[in-house]
Design a protein that fits this description.
This protein is α+β, with helices and mostly antiparallel strands. Helices cover about 35% and strands about 20% of the residues. A hairpin with a 5-residue loop joins strand 8 and strand 9. Helix 13 runs antiparallel to helix 14.
Length: about 475
């Protein structure tokens, strides 16, 4: 699992490089060693070198790149910001890597119909800022939202803290322009709230991890910006009580806009990282945000606090926006903070049905103890999405073996309760071996059939998802 290397590498011949430079522009086709190295990593830190990097600026240029490469039998790998945790943007078979960094225009914000049309390289946070100036709201907010891109978000069906109430990226994608294997641009979806004509190909493309085609234009649904929000900080003495509190909040008819948890190791890592004033002696910390009309908020936040207290928590309601923002900044600092606990971070993002959280969370913690590993748990507990992190040196063969066994048990635990091996990060290359645990052979065969329709020669982002 941890010894993933490039094996079959396809280099781009000089004559094809020359064709690309002529068609796309010499400055946009990079093949020196330093450029190739810069685009050989993502957040996994696994290194896979492309033969050539192409940085297109238009849809027509993307179309030409795909058409040329497919005719020549050269793999094409799309890349957004390279912030993924499963190797989705790594050029497993070399070939051409297409970076969308210069296709970063917000093409239109249609306030009347509440939609935005964007190129795939638009940074998620930038879009959110622009639409909020107009009283609109784009909810998906992955941890990397300040630098990840919309194209990557669509490819991975990205989530984030707010998705417990508002849903993941798929709920907001209305139309896609996608370049497929023969260089043809297909348009799927409609900018309407209703459309039931034909198969929903847009949904097939969302979350396909760039294995079916390259997105060149995306239309997103927007919603009204919430008028206000309130945040509760709840401190628990045991993790099972956290799961029970989460269940009780939803049973009370409350839909938090975010519901996040951190265990003790995570809390202390964040405090070491940024000194946010979190209680270092807490076993588990829960952050709950509710949003909506100011009058309704007052009742809901008090009820949330009461439910947490009934489950044994010590509770504080943030009294100002500044206090609330400090708490959420602490939560968003988790990923870099936890990274300081070990040379290598193995970050799994399993999902449980919410009803099983009180039972499953203590078992999850026991896996780390069983294998004598530093295990940090945090995540979007409101939708059952838990980030189980093993912090290791990566240099000790025995430690690596124990970690591999622990990760497999983590996946087995999620599947035992009807959950998933990934809620946000996708499968990519790091989880591809576990697809057979989650899906029956016939189900994988159907997925491979879909892949072959969009990519008959297996050249579009090859080597991903075990397909």
């Amino acid at each position: 699992m941890f010894n993933i290397e490039q094996k079959e590498v396809i280099n781009v011949p000089e004559n094809v490089k020359n064709i690309l430079k002529k068609e796309i522009g010499e400055a946009k086709v990079l093949d020196d060693d330093m450029d190739r190295l810069l685009y050989s990593y993502d957040a996994t830190r696994i290194k896979m070198l492309p033969s050539v990097v192409v940085i297109p600026e238009t849809e027509e240029e993307v179309r030409k790149v795909v058409s040329i490469c497919y005719q020549e039998g050269i793999p094409v790998t799309p890349r957004g910001a390279g912030s993924g945790y499963t190797g989705g943007a790594l050029p497993v078979r070399g070939g051409v890597l297409v970076s969308f960094e210069k296709m970063d225009r917000i093409l239109e914000i249609d306030e009347e119909n509440a939609v935005a049309r964007v190129q795939p390289g638009v940074v998620t946070y930038r879009l959110q800022q622009e639409v909020e100036k107009r009283g609109l709201f784009y909810p998906p907010d992955p941890a990397s939202y300040k630098f990840c891109t919309i194209g990557g978000n669509v490819a991975e069906n990205a989530g984030g803290p707010r998705c417990v109430k508002y849903g993941v990226t798929r709920e907001y994608v209305m139309e896609l322009n996608t370049v497929i294997y023969n260089g043809e641009i297909i348009h799927t979806g409609r900018p309407t709230l209703k459309d039931v004509a034909g198969y929903d190909i847009t949904r097939v493309l969302i979350g396909s991890e760039g294995t079916l085609g390259l997105f060149t234009e995306i239309t997103l649904k927007l919603i009204p910006k919430p008028k206000a929000s309130k945040t509760v900080k709840a401190i628990f003495s045991d993790i099972a009580s956290v799961g029970k509190a989460v269940k009780d909040i939803f049973k009370a008819g409350i839909s938090p806009s975010a519901l996040e948890f951190m265990d003790k190791l995570a809390i202390n890592a964040v405090e070491d990282f940024g000194h946010f004033g979190l209680p270092r002696d807490a076993e588990v910390l829960l952050l709950i945000e509710v949003d909506g009309h100011p009058k309704a908020l007052e009742e809901e936040i008090v009820e949330v606090a009461r439910i947490c207290e009934l489950n044994g928590a010590s509770v504080e309601i943030a009294q100002t926006e500044k206090e609330a923002e400090k708490l959420w900044t602490a939560r968003r600092s988790l990923s870099p903070a936890v990274s300081k606990l070990g040379r290598v971070k193995i970050n799994e993002d399993i999902v449980f049905p919410r009803s099983y959280l009180p039972e499953a969370l203590p078992q999850l913690r026991e896996i780390g103890r069983k294998y004598n590993l530093k295990m940090v748990n945090f995540g979007h507990i409101g939708d059952g999405n838990v980030h189980a992190n093993f912090m290791i040196s990566g240099l000790d063969p025995d430690e690596l073996e124990r970690t591999e066994k622990a990760v497999e048990e983590v996946f087995d635990l999620a599947l035992k309760y009807g959950g998933s091996i990934t809620g946000e990060h996708g499968v990519g290359i790091t989880k591809s071996l576990f697809m057979k645990k989650m899906f029956k052979p016939k189900e994988i065969e159907i997925m491979r059939g879909i892949k072959s329709v969009f990519d008959p020669e297996g050249l579009i982002n090859p080597g991903k998802m075990g397909l």
